[in-house]
Amino acid sequence: MKKIIRKHENSKHCFICGLENDKGLKAEFFETETGELACIFMPSEKYQGYPGVLHGGISAAVLDELIGRAINIEERDKFAMTTSLNLKYKKPVPYGVKLMGIAKITKNTRLLYEGEGTLYDDKGNECISAKGKYMKIPLEKISADFDSENDWFLNEKDSDPKEIKIEG
């Protein structure tokens, strides 16, 4: 078991975490006591590749977002862009069930960082692992339209988990 120490922000329109994106995954992110970032989401069949299987590109996008956000544990105000992402698909990922990912930073310099993450199915089996490299970029250079007060917010709920468990 890993204790949750803080929930991370959601946005309005992001495909992965946007709470007002009707086509998005509405993933939620939680910082653990071990310095990792957890992601919890439940994709529906509209995200399928093969019947019964989540599309591999959706899985890749979730892991990219998860590893990319992990910098916010050490540097809460940092945003970044992916420079590379390498994935290993180990097992088909189901949809229609609660999935979880875990990521951590493995190297952090002034301008770049590296991280790794894993996506697990609802039974705790490791399905996909990823390693990525990211460039730290000031938010104003990423998007002139981003309104940090309205587009990036904490959405805490009584139902948020207090701890997470991975069984494998």
List key phrases describing it.
168 residues, Thiol Ester Dehydrase, Chain A, globular, single chain, two-stranded antiparallel sheet, eight-stranded antiparallel sheet
Record field, number of beta strands = 10
- First-to-last CA distance: 13 Å
- How are the strands of the largest sheet arranged? 5-8-7-6-4-3-1-10
Level-2 CATH architecture: Roll
By CATH, the topology is Thiol Ester Dehydrase, Chain A
Question: Would you tell me the overall average pLDDT?
Answer: 93
The CATH homologous superfamily: Hotdog Thioesterase
Note the main sheet.
8 strands, antiparallel
Structural class, by secondary structure, is alpha+beta
State the order of secondary-structure elements, H for helix, E for strand.
EEEEHHEEEEHHEE
Discrete helix count:
4
Portion of residues in helices? Answer: 10-25%
How many domain modules? 1
Q: What gyration radius follows from the Cα positions, in whole Å? A: 15 Å
Low-confidence stretches: none
CATH class: Alpha Beta
What fraction of residues sit in β-strands?
A: 35-45%
Globular, elongated, flat, extended or rod-shaped: what is the shape?
A: globular
Task: Write the topology of this structure.
Blueprint: E1 2-7, E2 10-11, E3 28-32, E4 37-41, H1 56-69, H2 71-74, E5 80-89, E6 99-108, E7 112-120, E8 126-136, H3 139-142, H4 148-151, E9 152-153, E10 163-164
Antiparallel strand pairs: 1-3, 1-10, 2-9, 3-4, 4-6, 5-8, 6-7, 7-8
